[in-house]
Amino acid sequence: QKEVEQNSGPLSVPEGAIASLNCTYSDRGSQSFFWYRQYSGKSPELIMSIYSNGDKEDGRFTAQLNKASQYVSLLIRDSQPSDSATYLCAVNMRQGSGGSNYKLTFGKGTLLTVNP
Amino acid sequence: GAVVSQHPSWVICKSGTSVKIECRSLDFQATTMFWYRQFPKQSLMLMATSNEGSKATYEQGVEKDKFLINHASLTLSTLTVTSAHPEDSSFYICSARDPFSRAGGGYEQYFGPGTRLTVT
User: Which end of chain A is more exposed for a tag (fewer CB within 10 A), N or C?
Assistant: First the structure.
């Protein structure tokens, strides 16, 4: 069973702090990784995609990927109350052996609360 | 990022009736769209993969005769919940792959705003 695991949380940080969200995945052949943000009652919103080992920065968000450790993380700097949401890690995993059919597999999400 | 719309945003229907939900990719052509369902405080559950011009692929445990999917054009997929029952009440979300975002064997997927279905 190909899986994506996340800290279930909830994670609570004070305003202005760095929030660190972690994710591990089981399929060593995966190449595409995504972070989505989902506010309560809303649909997921893509905030970061990462494909290569290392860091990728976009504003206050930094995604980190380590394929050898099968680990991907999201750092949110200067956390704001508006960042309070569930963060979903998603990995494009190949379906079956070989072939080119990929499907996005989601973790269960980590609920982040940023306290003013 | 790419934009995906859904209509209606919410719907209330009586038990036994059918409801159609539309999903459109507004600024790109999506050969592949996905339909998810999410119950309160639970994870997204993939129901089916919709490919333009071919039959949808349903996930295990999803009744294809109950959840009819049509992907008749590169910008429109529809989900029809037939003979709806209260247990079908849920948040239905579609998603579309942006074919120009391909990297590392995958594509970026963008979600519509969702449709909240209540069956009374």
Answer: N
